[in-house]
Amino acid sequence: MADSKRADFSLIKKGILEENPVYTSALALCPTLAVTVTAVNGLGMGIATTAVLTASCLLVSLLRNVIPNAVRIPIFILICASFTTVVQFLLQAYLPALNDALGMFIALIAINCIILARMESFSSKNPALNTTFDAIGMGLGFTLALIIIGIIREFIGGGAFLGFALPEAFPRTTVLALPPGGFFVLAFVIVIFTKFRDKFFSGKPKPAKVAVGGGCASAKACPSADCPAKDEGGSS
Amino acid sequence: MSNHVDTPVLANPEFAKTRRNMSYVLIALAPTTLVGVYFFGISALLVVLVSVLSSVAFEWIYQKLAKKPITINDLSATVTGLLMGLTLPPSIPLWMPVVGSFVAIIIVKQLFGGLGKNFLNPALVGRGFLAISYAAPMSTGFRYPLTGWLNVDTVSAATPLLRVNANGVAPVSNDYIMALFGNIPGSIGETAAIALLIGGLFLLITKTISWHIPVAFIGTTFLMTHLLGEHALYQILLGGLLLGAFFMATDPSSSPISPLGKILFGVGAGVLVVFIRLFGGYPEGVAFAILLMNLVVPLIDRFIKPRARKVSE
Protein backbone atom coordinates (compact mmCIF):
# COMPACT_ATOMS: atom_id res chain seq x y z
CA MET A 1 0.00 0.00 0.00
CA ALA A 2 2.68 2.45 -0.98
CA ASP A 3 0.29 4.71 -2.78
CA SER A 4 -2.82 4.27 -0.71
CA LYS A 5 -4.51 7.38 -2.07
CA ARG A 6 -5.06 5.94 -5.52
CA ALA A 7 -8.02 3.76 -6.34
CA ASP A 8 -6.86 0.18 -6.66
CA PHE A 9 -9.33 -2.04 -8.52
CA SER A 10 -7.13 -5.10 -8.16
CA LEU A 11 -8.23 -5.25 -4.51
CA ILE A 12 -11.50 -6.76 -5.71
CA LYS A 13 -9.74 -9.53 -7.60
CA LYS A 14 -7.40 -10.08 -4.67
CA GLY A 15 -10.29 -10.77 -2.31
CA ILE A 16 -11.83 -13.26 -4.70
CA LEU A 17 -8.71 -15.16 -5.74
CA GLU A 18 -5.33 -14.53 -4.17
CA GLU A 19 -6.60 -13.90 -0.69
CA ASN A 20 -9.96 -15.60 -0.76
CA PRO A 21 -11.02 -15.43 2.90
CA VAL A 22 -12.40 -18.97 3.06
CA TYR A 23 -10.08 -20.87 0.76
CA THR A 24 -6.77 -19.28 1.67
CA SER A 25 -7.21 -17.90 5.18
CA ALA A 26 -9.82 -20.37 6.45
CA LEU A 27 -11.78 -17.50 7.98
CA ALA A 28 -15.50 -17.65 8.80
CA LEU A 29 -15.63 -21.44 8.68
CA CYS A 30 -18.65 -21.55 10.96
CA PRO A 31 -21.12 -20.00 8.50
CA THR A 32 -19.26 -21.64 5.62
CA LEU A 33 -19.94 -25.11 6.94
CA ALA A 34 -23.30 -24.43 8.49
CA VAL A 35 -25.31 -22.77 5.72
CA THR A 36 -23.89 -24.37 2.59
CA VAL A 37 -26.31 -27.27 2.44
CA THR A 38 -27.79 -25.61 -0.64
CA ALA A 39 -26.32 -23.16 -3.13
CA VAL A 40 -29.13 -20.63 -2.58
CA ASN A 41 -28.42 -20.50 1.14
CA GLY A 42 -24.78 -19.91 0.37
CA LEU A 43 -25.65 -17.10 -2.01
CA GLY A 44 -28.00 -15.46 0.51
CA MET A 45 -25.48 -15.72 3.31
CA GLY A 46 -22.75 -14.38 1.04
CA ILE A 47 -24.74 -11.35 -0.07
CA ALA A 48 -25.89 -10.53 3.44
CA THR A 49 -22.32 -10.75 4.70
CA THR A 50 -21.01 -8.68 1.79
CA ALA A 51 -23.53 -5.96 2.55
CA VAL A 52 -22.61 -5.81 6.22
CA LEU A 53 -18.92 -6.06 5.42
CA THR A 54 -18.92 -3.23 2.90
CA ALA A 55 -21.03 -0.89 4.99
CA SER A 56 -19.14 -1.44 8.22
CA CYS A 57 -15.70 -1.30 6.61
CA LEU A 58 -16.63 1.94 4.91
CA LEU A 59 -17.77 3.46 8.18
CA VAL A 60 -14.67 2.27 10.02
CA SER A 61 -12.51 3.76 7.29
CA LEU A 62 -14.27 7.11 7.51
CA LEU A 63 -13.96 7.14 11.28
CA ARG A 64 -10.43 5.73 11.38
CA ASN A 65 -8.89 8.96 12.64
CA VAL A 66 -11.55 9.43 15.30
CA ILE A 67 -11.67 5.95 16.83
CA PRO A 68 -9.34 5.72 19.86
CA ASN A 69 -6.90 2.90 19.41
CA ALA A 70 -7.48 1.42 22.86
CA VAL A 71 -11.17 0.73 22.33
CA ARG A 72 -11.18 0.09 18.60
CA ILE A 73 -12.32 -3.55 18.77
CA PRO A 74 -15.54 -2.85 20.72
CA ILE A 75 -16.28 -0.01 18.32
CA PHE A 76 -15.72 -2.26 15.31
CA ILE A 77 -18.07 -4.84 16.74
CA LEU A 78 -20.64 -2.18 17.55
CA ILE A 79 -20.58 -0.85 14.00
CA CYS A 80 -20.77 -4.34 12.56
CA ALA A 81 -23.62 -5.36 14.86
CA SER A 82 -25.62 -2.29 13.89
CA PHE A 83 -25.41 -3.10 10.19
CA THR A 84 -26.14 -6.75 10.90
CA THR A 85 -29.33 -5.73 12.65
CA VAL A 86 -30.35 -3.64 9.66
CA VAL A 87 -29.69 -6.54 7.27
CA GLN A 88 -31.58 -8.94 9.49
CA PHE A 89 -34.64 -6.68 9.60
CA LEU A 90 -34.51 -6.29 5.83
CA LEU A 91 -34.34 -10.05 5.35
CA GLN A 92 -37.19 -10.63 7.78
CA ALA A 93 -39.30 -8.11 5.92
CA TYR A 94 -38.54 -9.02 2.31
CA LEU A 95 -37.05 -12.52 2.22
CA PRO A 96 -38.58 -14.36 5.19
CA ALA A 97 -37.91 -17.78 3.64
CA LEU A 98 -34.19 -17.13 3.34
CA ASN A 99 -34.17 -15.64 6.81
CA ASP A 100 -35.67 -18.84 8.19
CA ALA A 101 -33.20 -21.00 6.28
CA LEU A 102 -30.18 -19.11 7.55
CA GLY A 103 -31.58 -18.81 11.07
CA MET A 104 -29.25 -17.52 13.69
CA PHE A 105 -26.34 -17.32 11.27
CA ILE A 106 -27.63 -13.94 10.08
CA ALA A 107 -27.29 -12.55 13.58
CA LEU A 108 -23.87 -14.13 13.85
CA ILE A 109 -22.62 -12.01 10.96
CA ALA A 110 -21.97 -9.44 13.68
CA ILE A 111 -19.04 -11.51 14.90
CA ASN A 112 -17.97 -12.84 11.51
CA CYS A 113 -14.20 -12.96 11.65
CA ILE A 114 -13.74 -11.87 8.03
CA ILE A 115 -15.37 -8.56 8.89
CA LEU A 116 -13.33 -8.03 12.01
CA ALA A 117 -10.15 -9.04 10.21
CA ARG A 118 -10.74 -6.61 7.35
CA MET A 119 -11.65 -3.76 9.69
CA GLU A 120 -8.59 -4.36 11.82
CA SER A 121 -6.08 -5.00 9.07
CA PHE A 122 -7.33 -2.85 6.21
CA SER A 123 -10.19 -0.39 6.81
CA SER A 124 -8.66 1.19 9.88
CA LYS A 125 -5.54 2.08 7.88
CA ASN A 126 -6.85 2.87 4.40
CA PRO A 127 -9.04 5.53 2.78
CA ALA A 128 -12.68 4.97 2.01
CA LEU A 129 -12.49 4.12 -1.68
CA ASN A 130 -9.92 1.35 -1.42
CA THR A 131 -11.62 0.04 1.69
CA THR A 132 -14.81 -0.33 -0.30
CA PHE A 133 -13.03 -2.22 -3.05
CA ASP A 134 -11.35 -4.44 -0.51
CA ALA A 135 -14.61 -5.15 1.29
CA ILE A 136 -16.46 -5.91 -1.94
CA GLY A 137 -13.65 -8.22 -3.05
CA MET A 138 -13.60 -10.09 0.23
CA GLY A 139 -17.39 -10.27 0.28
CA LEU A 140 -17.53 -11.62 -3.26
CA GLY A 141 -14.78 -14.09 -2.46
CA PHE A 142 -16.75 -15.30 0.54
CA THR A 143 -19.95 -15.50 -1.52
CA LEU A 144 -18.23 -17.43 -4.30
CA ALA A 145 -16.70 -19.83 -1.80
CA LEU A 146 -20.08 -20.49 -0.24
CA ILE A 147 -21.85 -20.97 -3.56
CA ILE A 148 -19.28 -23.48 -4.83
CA ILE A 149 -19.44 -25.54 -1.65
CA GLY A 150 -23.23 -25.20 -1.64
CA ILE A 151 -23.60 -26.45 -5.22
CA ILE A 152 -21.45 -29.50 -4.55
CA ARG A 153 -23.16 -30.41 -1.29
CA GLU A 154 -26.62 -29.81 -2.72
CA PHE A 155 -25.84 -31.92 -5.78
CA ILE A 156 -24.20 -34.92 -4.15
CA GLY A 157 -25.72 -34.76 -0.70
CA GLY A 158 -29.23 -33.49 -1.36
CA GLY A 159 -29.82 -34.70 -4.89
CA ALA A 160 -30.74 -31.28 -6.29
CA PHE A 161 -29.14 -28.69 -8.51
CA LEU A 162 -29.82 -25.05 -7.65
CA GLY A 163 -33.07 -26.07 -6.05
CA PHE A 164 -34.29 -28.41 -8.79
CA ALA A 165 -34.55 -31.96 -7.53
CA LEU A 166 -32.81 -34.67 -9.51
CA PRO A 167 -34.61 -37.93 -10.38
CA GLU A 168 -35.24 -40.31 -7.51
CA ALA A 169 -32.81 -42.82 -8.99
CA PHE A 170 -29.91 -40.44 -8.36
CA PRO A 171 -28.36 -41.55 -5.08
CA ARG A 172 -28.32 -39.06 -2.23
CA THR A 173 -25.04 -39.29 -0.36
CA THR A 174 -26.61 -37.90 2.78
CA VAL A 175 -23.41 -37.52 4.73
CA LEU A 176 -22.34 -34.61 2.54
CA ALA A 177 -25.38 -32.66 3.67
CA LEU A 178 -24.38 -33.24 7.29
CA PRO A 179 -21.68 -31.26 9.12
CA PRO A 180 -18.85 -33.80 8.47
CA GLY A 181 -19.64 -33.63 4.78
CA GLY A 182 -19.13 -29.88 4.93
CA PHE A 183 -15.57 -30.46 6.08
CA PHE A 184 -14.94 -33.08 3.39
CA VAL A 185 -16.17 -30.82 0.60
CA LEU A 186 -14.37 -27.76 1.96
CA ALA A 187 -11.09 -29.66 2.10
CA PHE A 188 -11.41 -30.95 -1.46
CA VAL A 189 -12.44 -27.55 -2.81
CA ILE A 190 -9.48 -25.88 -1.08
CA VAL A 191 -7.10 -28.40 -2.66
CA ILE A 192 -8.50 -27.82 -6.13
CA PHE A 193 -8.75 -24.05 -5.64
CA THR A 194 -5.15 -23.77 -4.48
CA LYS A 195 -3.91 -25.77 -7.44
CA PHE A 196 -6.01 -23.72 -9.85
CA ARG A 197 -4.96 -20.41 -8.30
CA ASP A 198 -1.26 -21.21 -8.26
CA LYS A 199 -1.44 -22.20 -11.88
CA PHE A 200 -3.38 -19.34 -13.37
CA PHE A 201 -3.72 -16.45 -10.99
CA SER A 202 -0.65 -16.39 -8.84
CA GLY A 203 0.29 -12.83 -8.09
CA LYS A 204 3.51 -13.98 -6.48
CA PRO A 205 6.72 -13.91 -8.54
CA LYS A 206 6.61 -17.67 -8.38
CA PRO A 207 7.43 -19.01 -11.87
CA ALA A 208 10.98 -19.88 -10.89
CA LYS A 209 10.31 -23.23 -12.50
CA VAL A 210 9.72 -21.60 -15.86
CA ALA A 211 12.78 -19.41 -15.56
CA VAL A 212 15.06 -22.35 -14.79
CA GLY A 213 13.78 -24.31 -17.72
CA GLY A 214 14.58 -21.45 -20.03
CA GLY A 215 12.33 -22.91 -22.70
CA CYS A 216 9.80 -20.15 -22.27
CA ALA A 217 11.26 -16.73 -22.78
CA SER A 218 7.96 -14.91 -22.81
CA ALA A 219 6.79 -16.56 -19.63
CA LYS A 220 4.56 -13.65 -18.73
CA ALA A 221 2.82 -13.56 -22.07
CA CYS A 222 2.14 -17.17 -22.79
CA PRO A 223 -0.83 -18.86 -21.09
CA SER A 224 0.82 -20.51 -18.16
CA ALA A 225 -1.04 -23.75 -18.80
CA ASP A 226 1.38 -24.97 -21.41
CA CYS A 227 4.50 -23.41 -19.91
CA PRO A 228 5.21 -26.15 -17.35
CA ALA A 229 4.89 -28.76 -20.09
CA LYS A 230 7.52 -27.06 -22.23
CA ASP A 231 9.62 -26.65 -19.14
CA GLU A 232 9.59 -30.34 -18.33
CA GLY A 233 10.57 -31.17 -21.86
CA GLY A 234 13.39 -28.66 -21.95
CA SER A 235 15.03 -29.26 -18.60
CA SER A 236 16.94 -32.30 -17.37
CA MET B 1 9.63 -40.99 -14.68
CA SER B 2 10.93 -42.69 -11.55
CA ASN B 3 14.58 -42.83 -12.44
CA HIS B 4 15.58 -41.67 -8.97
CA VAL B 5 17.16 -44.45 -6.97
CA ASP B 6 14.82 -45.89 -4.40
CA THR B 7 15.08 -48.94 -2.22
CA PRO B 8 13.56 -51.77 -4.18
CA VAL B 9 10.17 -52.11 -2.61
CA LEU B 10 10.29 -55.87 -2.26
CA ALA B 11 13.64 -55.84 -0.48
CA ASN B 12 12.33 -53.45 2.17
CA PRO B 13 11.99 -55.48 5.40
CA GLU B 14 9.05 -53.33 6.53
CA PHE B 15 7.28 -54.15 3.29
CA ALA B 16 7.90 -57.87 3.69
CA LYS B 17 6.56 -57.76 7.24
CA THR B 18 3.43 -55.93 6.17
CA ARG B 19 2.91 -58.34 3.34
CA ARG B 20 3.26 -61.35 5.65
CA ASN B 21 0.88 -59.92 8.25
CA MET B 22 -1.64 -58.96 5.62
CA SER B 23 -1.57 -62.40 4.06
CA TYR B 24 -2.18 -63.92 7.51
CA VAL B 25 -5.20 -61.65 7.91
CA LEU B 26 -6.48 -62.75 4.52
CA ILE B 27 -6.06 -66.41 5.48
CA ALA B 28 -7.84 -65.73 8.77
CA LEU B 29 -10.72 -64.09 6.95
CA ALA B 30 -11.09 -66.93 4.44
CA PRO B 31 -13.50 -69.09 6.51
CA THR B 32 -15.72 -66.09 7.24
CA THR B 33 -15.79 -65.04 3.61
CA LEU B 34 -16.59 -68.57 2.44
CA VAL B 35 -19.38 -68.96 5.00
CA GLY B 36 -20.81 -65.57 4.03
CA VAL B 37 -20.81 -66.45 0.36
CA TYR B 38 -22.29 -69.88 1.11
CA PHE B 39 -25.20 -68.39 3.03
CA PHE B 40 -25.88 -65.30 0.96
CA GLY B 41 -24.89 -66.46 -2.48
CA ILE B 42 -23.75 -64.67 -5.54
CA SER B 43 -24.72 -61.18 -4.38
CA ALA B 44 -22.49 -61.46 -1.33
CA LEU B 45 -19.64 -62.68 -3.50
CA LEU B 46 -20.10 -59.72 -5.81
CA VAL B 47 -20.19 -57.19 -2.96
CA VAL B 48 -16.95 -58.59 -1.53
CA LEU B 49 -15.26 -58.80 -4.93
CA VAL B 50 -16.21 -55.27 -5.94
CA SER B 51 -15.08 -54.01 -2.57
CA VAL B 52 -11.66 -55.67 -2.80
CA LEU B 53 -11.05 -54.80 -6.45
CA SER B 54 -12.08 -51.18 -6.08
CA SER B 55 -9.91 -50.76 -2.98
CA VAL B 56 -6.86 -52.07 -4.77
CA ALA B 57 -7.70 -49.97 -7.83
CA PHE B 58 -8.01 -46.76 -5.79
CA GLU B 59 -4.71 -47.47 -4.06
CA TRP B 60 -3.04 -48.00 -7.43
CA ILE B 61 -4.63 -44.89 -8.96
CA TYR B 62 -3.66 -42.67 -6.06
CA GLN B 63 -0.07 -43.88 -5.94
CA LYS B 64 0.18 -43.51 -9.71
CA LEU B 65 -1.21 -39.96 -9.64
CA ALA B 66 0.90 -38.94 -6.67
CA LYS B 67 3.96 -40.49 -8.32
CA LYS B 68 4.62 -42.67 -5.31
CA PRO B 69 5.91 -46.25 -5.37
CA ILE B 70 3.07 -48.62 -6.14
CA THR B 71 2.59 -50.81 -3.08
CA ILE B 72 -0.58 -52.71 -3.86
CA ASN B 73 1.47 -55.89 -3.52
CA ASP B 74 1.69 -55.40 0.23
CA LEU B 75 -1.95 -56.60 0.29
CA SER B 76 -3.03 -53.91 2.73
CA ALA B 77 -5.60 -52.50 0.31
CA THR B 78 -6.86 -56.02 -0.31
CA VAL B 79 -7.39 -56.49 3.41
CA THR B 80 -9.13 -53.13 3.74
CA GLY B 81 -11.41 -53.95 0.82
CA LEU B 82 -12.22 -57.41 2.12
CA LEU B 83 -12.92 -56.15 5.65
CA MET B 84 -15.19 -53.44 4.35
CA GLY B 85 -17.00 -55.85 2.06
CA LEU B 86 -17.61 -58.20 4.97
CA THR B 87 -19.25 -55.45 7.02
CA LEU B 88 -21.79 -54.70 4.28
CA PRO B 89 -25.22 -56.25 3.87
CA PRO B 90 -25.35 -58.78 1.03
CA SER B 91 -28.04 -57.05 -0.99
CA ILE B 92 -26.83 -53.57 -1.75
CA PRO B 93 -26.24 -51.91 -5.13
CA LEU B 94 -22.74 -52.71 -6.30
CA TRP B 95 -21.64 -49.10 -6.73
CA MET B 96 -21.89 -48.61 -2.97
CA PRO B 97 -18.78 -50.66 -2.13
CA VAL B 98 -16.94 -48.56 -4.71
CA VAL B 99 -17.89 -45.35 -2.91
CA GLY B 100 -16.90 -46.96 0.37
CA SER B 101 -13.53 -47.99 -1.03
CA PHE B 102 -12.93 -44.47 -2.28
CA VAL B 103 -13.54 -43.07 1.19
CA ALA B 104 -11.51 -45.81 2.87
CA ILE B 105 -8.47 -45.80 0.61
CA ILE B 106 -8.26 -42.26 -0.74
CA ILE B 107 -9.58 -40.14 2.12
CA VAL B 108 -8.75 -42.13 5.22
CA LYS B 109 -5.60 -43.94 4.18
CA GLN B 110 -3.72 -42.17 1.40
CA LEU B 111 -4.55 -38.54 2.13
CA PHE B 112 -3.23 -39.02 5.64
CA GLY B 113 0.02 -40.49 4.38
CA GLY B 114 -0.64 -44.09 3.40
CA LEU B 115 -0.04 -47.33 5.23
CA GLY B 116 0.47 -46.93 8.96
CA LYS B 117 -0.42 -43.23 9.00
CA ASN B 118 -4.19 -43.55 9.16
CA PHE B 119 -5.62 -42.66 12.55
CA LEU B 120 -8.95 -44.30 11.80
CA ASN B 121 -9.67 -47.77 10.52
CA PRO B 122 -10.20 -47.24 6.76
CA ALA B 123 -12.61 -50.12 6.28
CA LEU B 124 -14.82 -48.92 9.12
CA VAL B 125 -14.92 -45.32 7.90
CA GLY B 126 -15.90 -46.65 4.47
CA ARG B 127 -18.68 -48.62 6.06
CA GLY B 128 -19.72 -45.71 8.30
CA PHE B 129 -19.82 -43.35 5.34
CA LEU B 130 -22.16 -45.74 3.53
CA ALA B 131 -24.27 -46.40 6.62
CA ILE B 132 -24.88 -42.69 7.19
CA SER B 133 -25.26 -41.77 3.54
CA TYR B 134 -27.47 -44.58 2.30
CA ALA B 135 -29.40 -45.45 5.42
CA ALA B 136 -32.21 -47.30 3.68
CA PRO B 137 -30.26 -49.85 1.59
CA MET B 138 -27.67 -50.25 4.32
CA SER B 139 -30.25 -51.21 6.91
CA THR B 140 -32.64 -53.20 4.72
CA GLY B 141 -30.08 -54.98 2.58
CA PHE B 142 -30.11 -57.97 4.94
CA ARG B 143 -31.86 -61.14 4.01
CA TYR B 144 -32.40 -64.65 5.24
CA PRO B 145 -29.57 -67.04 4.49
CA LEU B 146 -29.94 -69.75 1.89
CA THR B 147 -32.84 -68.01 0.19
CA GLY B 148 -31.64 -69.03 -3.22
CA TRP B 149 -28.04 -68.89 -4.19
CA LEU B 150 -28.60 -66.78 -7.28
CA ASN B 151 -31.18 -64.57 -5.66
CA VAL B 152 -30.10 -60.94 -5.76
CA ASP B 153 -33.47 -59.43 -4.90
CA THR B 154 -33.80 -57.85 -1.52
CA VAL B 155 -36.23 -59.64 0.72
CA SER B 156 -35.49 -57.61 3.75
CA ALA B 157 -35.00 -59.50 6.99
CA ALA B 158 -34.66 -58.24 10.54
CA THR B 159 -31.26 -59.07 11.96
CA PRO B 160 -31.20 -60.95 15.27
CA LEU B 161 -29.76 -57.90 17.02
CA LEU B 162 -32.77 -55.89 15.97
CA ARG B 163 -35.04 -58.67 17.18
CA VAL B 164 -33.37 -59.01 20.54
CA ASN B 165 -32.58 -55.40 21.38
CA ALA B 166 -35.35 -53.43 19.71
CA ASN B 167 -38.18 -55.93 19.70
CA GLY B 168 -37.26 -57.67 22.94
CA VAL B 169 -37.47 -61.27 21.72
CA ALA B 170 -35.58 -63.65 23.98
CA PRO B 171 -33.24 -66.06 22.18
CA VAL B 172 -33.86 -69.78 22.53
CA SER B 173 -31.14 -72.40 22.46
CA ASN B 174 -31.54 -72.95 18.74
CA ASP B 175 -30.73 -69.27 18.18
CA TYR B 176 -27.32 -69.73 19.76
CA ILE B 177 -26.50 -72.58 17.42
CA MET B 178 -27.69 -70.55 14.46
CA ALA B 179 -25.50 -67.62 15.51
CA LEU B 180 -22.54 -69.91 15.96
CA PHE B 181 -22.80 -71.48 12.53
CA GLY B 182 -24.01 -68.48 10.65
CA ASN B 183 -27.53 -69.30 9.60
CA ILE B 184 -28.81 -65.83 10.46
CA PRO B 185 -29.48 -62.63 8.53
CA GLY B 186 -26.75 -60.05 8.85
CA SER B 187 -23.78 -58.48 7.13
CA ILE B 188 -21.78 -60.84 4.95
CA GLY B 189 -18.99 -61.34 7.44
CA GLU B 190 -20.88 -61.38 10.71
CA THR B 191 -23.04 -64.44 10.38
CA ALA B 192 -20.89 -67.30 11.61
CA ALA B 193 -19.31 -66.73 14.99
CA ILE B 194 -17.33 -69.95 14.69
CA ALA B 195 -15.62 -68.92 11.46
CA LEU B 196 -14.63 -65.60 13.02
CA LEU B 197 -13.32 -67.36 16.13
CA ILE B 198 -11.20 -69.69 14.01
CA GLY B 199 -9.77 -66.72 12.12
CA GLY B 200 -9.15 -64.78 15.32
CA LEU B 201 -7.38 -67.73 16.92
CA PHE B 202 -5.22 -68.09 13.83
CA LEU B 203 -4.18 -64.45 14.12
CA LEU B 204 -3.41 -64.89 17.81
CA ILE B 205 -1.37 -68.04 17.28
CA THR B 206 0.65 -66.50 14.45
CA LYS B 207 1.20 -63.42 16.66
CA THR B 208 -0.25 -61.18 13.98
CA ILE B 209 -2.32 -59.54 16.73
CA SER B 210 -1.95 -59.49 20.49
CA TRP B 211 -4.68 -60.77 22.79
CA HIS B 212 -5.23 -57.52 24.68
CA ILE B 213 -7.73 -55.73 22.49
CA PRO B 214 -10.00 -58.65 21.52
CA VAL B 215 -10.13 -60.04 25.06
CA ALA B 216 -10.79 -56.64 26.66
CA PHE B 217 -13.32 -55.71 23.98
CA ILE B 218 -15.33 -58.94 24.01
CA GLY B 219 -14.95 -59.40 27.77
CA THR B 220 -16.28 -55.92 28.50
CA THR B 221 -19.23 -56.40 26.20
CA PHE B 222 -20.02 -59.74 27.83
CA LEU B 223 -19.74 -58.40 31.37
CA MET B 224 -21.73 -55.26 30.75
CA THR B 225 -24.58 -56.94 28.91
CA HIS B 226 -24.65 -59.59 31.64
CA LEU B 227 -24.81 -56.97 34.39
CA LEU B 228 -27.55 -55.15 32.53
CA GLY B 229 -29.58 -58.35 32.44
CA GLU B 230 -29.26 -59.10 28.74
CA HIS B 231 -28.43 -62.41 27.13
CA ALA B 232 -24.70 -61.78 27.28
CA LEU B 233 -23.50 -64.77 25.31
CA TYR B 234 -25.94 -64.07 22.53
CA GLN B 235 -24.84 -60.43 22.44
CA ILE B 236 -21.22 -61.33 21.81
CA LEU B 237 -22.00 -63.98 19.21
CA LEU B 238 -24.10 -61.57 17.20
CA GLY B 239 -23.40 -58.71 14.95
CA GLY B 240 -20.00 -57.43 14.02
CA LEU B 241 -18.50 -57.79 17.49
CA LEU B 242 -16.17 -60.71 16.79
CA LEU B 243 -15.26 -59.36 13.37
CA GLY B 244 -14.58 -55.94 14.85
CA ALA B 245 -12.72 -57.16 17.92
CA PHE B 246 -10.33 -59.50 16.10
CA PHE B 247 -9.87 -57.82 12.73
CA MET B 248 -10.70 -54.12 12.97
CA ALA B 249 -9.89 -52.90 16.47
CA THR B 250 -6.45 -54.52 16.22
CA ASP B 251 -5.33 -52.39 13.25
CA PRO B 252 -1.83 -51.43 14.43
CA SER B 253 -1.88 -47.88 13.10
CA SER B 254 -5.15 -46.97 14.79
CA SER B 255 -4.79 -48.75 18.12
CA PRO B 256 -2.58 -47.98 21.15
CA ILE B 257 1.02 -49.21 21.37
CA SER B 258 1.30 -50.33 24.97
CA PRO B 259 -0.45 -53.44 26.33
CA LEU B 260 -2.22 -51.45 29.04
CA GLY B 261 -3.31 -48.93 26.44
CA LYS B 262 -4.69 -51.74 24.30
CA ILE B 263 -6.71 -53.06 27.23
CA LEU B 264 -8.11 -49.59 27.89
CA PHE B 265 -8.93 -49.29 24.19
CA GLY B 266 -10.78 -52.61 24.23
CA VAL B 267 -12.70 -51.77 27.40
CA GLY B 268 -13.74 -48.41 25.98
CA ALA B 269 -14.91 -49.95 22.75
CA GLY B 270 -16.86 -52.60 24.64
CA VAL B 271 -18.63 -50.03 26.79
CA LEU B 272 -19.53 -47.98 23.71
CA VAL B 273 -20.88 -51.01 21.86
CA VAL B 274 -23.16 -51.88 24.74
CA PHE B 275 -24.40 -48.31 25.04
CA ILE B 276 -25.09 -48.01 21.33
CA ARG B 277 -26.75 -51.41 21.07
CA LEU B 278 -28.97 -51.10 24.11
CA PHE B 279 -29.63 -47.37 24.35
CA GLY B 280 -28.73 -45.93 20.98
CA GLY B 281 -30.59 -45.42 17.75
CA TYR B 282 -28.67 -48.03 15.77
CA PRO B 283 -29.14 -51.75 16.42
CA GLU B 284 -25.40 -52.35 16.02
CA GLY B 285 -22.60 -50.12 17.22
CA VAL B 286 -19.32 -51.98 16.75
CA ALA B 287 -18.19 -49.83 13.84
CA PHE B 288 -18.88 -46.55 15.57
CA ALA B 289 -17.47 -47.79 18.88
CA ILE B 290 -14.16 -48.70 17.27
CA LEU B 291 -14.01 -45.45 15.32
CA LEU B 292 -14.67 -43.40 18.44
CA MET B 293 -11.94 -45.27 20.29
CA ASN B 294 -9.59 -44.78 17.31
CA LEU B 295 -9.91 -41.07 17.97
CA VAL B 296 -8.86 -41.51 21.58
CA VAL B 297 -5.72 -43.49 20.71
CA PRO B 298 -3.36 -40.49 20.62
CA LEU B 299 -4.53 -39.56 24.11
CA ILE B 300 -4.08 -43.10 25.40
CA ASP B 301 -0.62 -43.28 23.86
CA ARG B 302 0.34 -39.98 25.40
CA PHE B 303 -0.53 -41.01 28.94
CA ILE B 304 0.37 -44.69 28.81
CA LYS B 305 3.73 -44.87 27.14
CA PRO B 306 5.23 -48.25 26.31
CA ARG B 307 8.17 -49.12 28.56
CA ALA B 308 11.52 -48.21 27.11
CA ARG B 309 12.88 -51.74 27.15
CA LYS B 310 10.10 -52.92 24.93
CA VAL B 311 11.54 -50.95 22.06
CA SER B 312 14.48 -53.27 21.56
CA GLU B 313 12.70 -56.28 20.18
Please tell me about this protein's structure:
The complex is a heterodimer of chains A (236) and B (313). Chain A is mainly α and 236 residues long. Chain A folds into two domains: 10-199, no CATH class; 206-236, no CATH class. Helices cover 63% and strands 2% of the residues of chain A. Chain A has a two-stranded antiparallel ribbon. The two termini of chain A are 40 Å apart. Mean pLDDT of chain A is 79; it is low at 205-236. Chain B has 313 residues and is mainly alpha-helical. Chain B has two domains: 9-135, no CATH class; 159-303, no CATH class. Chain B has 13 helices and no strands. Chain B has helices at residues 13-65, 76-86, 95-110, 122-133, 135-140, 160-166, 173-181, 193-205, 212-227, 232-237, 241-248, 259-279, 286-303. In chain B, helix 1 crosses helix 2. Chain B is globular. Chain B starts with 12 loop residues before the first helix and ends in a 10-residue tail after the last helix.
Total separate domains of chain A: 2
Biggest sheet architecture of chain B: none
- Beta strand count of chain A: 2
Please state the CA-atom Rg of chain B, rounded to the nearest Å: 19 Å
The arrangement of helices and strands of chain A along the chain is HHHHHHHHEEHHH
Strand order of the largest sheet of chain A: 1-2
Shape of chain B: globular
Question: What proportion of the residues of chain B form beta strands (DSSP E)?
Answer: under 5%
How are the SSEs placed, and which strands pair?
The complex is a heterodimer of chains A (236) and B (313).
Chain A: H1 10-16, H2 29-35, H3 39-62, H4 72-94, H5 96-102, H6 104-107, H7 113-121, H8 128-158, E1 160-161, E2 164-165, H9 179-200, H10 208-213, H11 227-234
Antiparallel strand pairs in A: 1-2
Chain B: H1 13-65, H2 76-86, H3 95-110, H4 122-133, H5 135-140, H6 160-166, H7 173-181, H8 193-205, H9 212-227, H10 232-237, H11 241-248, H12 259-279, H13 286-303
Helix pairs in contact in B: 1-2, 1-3, 1-8, 2-3, 2-4, 3-4, 4-13, 8-11, 9-11, 9-12, 12-13
